[in-house]
Amino acid sequence: MLQEGFDDGKGESVPKSFAEELDDLRDRGLYRSMRRIAGPQGGRVVLDGREVLLLCSNNYLGLADHPALKAAAVKAVERFGAGSGASRLVSGTMELHEALEERIARFKGTGAAVIFNSGFAANSGIIPALVAKGDLVFSDRLNHASIVDGCLLSRATMVRYPHNDMAALRRLLEKHPTDGRRLIVTDGVFSMDGDMAPLRELVALKDEFRALLMVDDAHGTGVLGATGRGSAEHCGVMAGIDIHMGTLGKALGSFGAYAAASREIVEYLVNRARSFIFSTSLPPAVLAASLAAIDLVDSHEGSALRDRLALNAAFFRDALKSAGFDVMGSETQIVPAFVGEAEQTMTFTQRLLEEGIFVQGIRPPTVPAGTCRLRCTLMASHDEVDLARAVEAMARIGRESGAI
Ligand SMILES: Cc1ncc(COP(=O)(O)O)c(C=O)c1O
């Protein structure tokens, strides 16, 4: 992509090279790289040959390595093979696709459901299917990047409202009358902040302004609510949400995503969502693992894992607060610790890693400049001794570096 150029001496502007762009990122503390881990995603992983505490995985319930999911995946491969062959509209839909969609619709209490290949694919397919030029989409300022991209792709007018500010959203809904559709879209649990959307108020507003309400519950599904149905269950508004979007690759330990909605909306998405239509569908192993994961979420074991996770999250959050960290309004298993600037944040994560604690520093463009943080995510498989050790290290480094 062309960035600001410089004069090459012949009067022509030459774009910066990719190497220069990468150097810029390094200089600004915004360079990203991947770390290799060995073995499955558990409470501890082996990183560069050394065991570390994993505090940055979305495998909240520990299902990614659960024997029931692995057995289901293996059985499905033996029976149905490794791949799905094409888009379901092209080479046919498999019985496992249908079984998973029926299971998700039952889980969410909706008329139907349709699965997507990832949460990113879901958001960038659903939103442009529902709204287009001439329509309005109201999006929380802290919504996930895939929602922002979905809104931009739709070419509807995007109105971003201040985070969770229902008075501001009301004013914006009043200020933007339309003959077209209105869609309000929000994360159920905000992925970098760990707070929740005020779903009761959002349902009341969408009813009053005759808008559609879509909730991305990537981080609530399987975790929140008495039976793990997510943030809508937690807020008691399951029936008030028009489109429940959720992911299968976080608490559910598998991969993929879904939209659960009325039969009519789901049929419409199958006909209009480009990321569904023009992409090879999820393979049998993933479908079977997702089915096993939902059964687990619905079991006593699932309920016990949710309780354990909630205890771990509360313990860790309270300990961080007592140590003097700003946890940025976290109410869930996502617990950020505010640091501020990018370089300071990355130095912090490096020092934690040296002490055997693997946490991600979150920087722009994921979060606004000056609000960099350590995004800690809790799992049911963590224990309090490890968590207390992590808080102790964070507090010590935080004091030494002036972050607290
Ligand atoms: C709120 C939210 N929506 C969507 C996604 C994308 O989901 P996936 O990882 O399945 O593409 C994420 C994942 O990072 C997320 O946090």
Query: Strand percentage, roughly?
Result: 15-25%
Overall number of strands? 16
Number of domains: 2
Alpha-beta classification: alpha/beta
Task: List each distinct ligand once.
Answer: pyridoxal-5'-phosphate
Number of helices: 15
- Side-by-side strand order of the widest sheet: 6-12-11-10-9-7-8
User: What is the alpha-carbon Rg in Å?
Assistant: 22 Å
- Uncertain regions: pLDDT < 50 for 5+ in a row? 1-6
CATH H-tier superfamily of the largest domain: Type I PLP-dependent aspartate aminotransferase-like (Major domain)
Largest sheet: 7 strands, mixed
Describe this entry's structure for a reader.
The structure is a single chain. This protein has 404 residues and is of the alpha/beta class. The protein folds into 2 domains: 32-60 and 300-401, Aspartate Aminotransferase, domain 1; 69-297, Aspartate Aminotransferase, domain 2. It is 42% helix and 17% strand. It contains 15 helices and 16 strands. The strands form 4 sheets. It has a 7-stranded mixed β-sheet with strand order 6-12-11-10-9-7-8, sandwiched between helices. Strand 4 and strand 5 form a beta hairpin. The longest helix is centred in the last third of the chain and has 23 residues, at 300-322. The two termini are 39 Å apart. Residues 1-6 have low confidence and may be disordered.
What characteristics describe this protein?
alpha/beta, 404 residues, 15 helices, Aspartate Aminotransferase, domain 1, four-stranded mixed beta sheet, Aspartate Aminotransferase, domain 2, seven-stranded mixed beta sheet, globular, binds pyridoxal-5'-phosphate, 16 strands
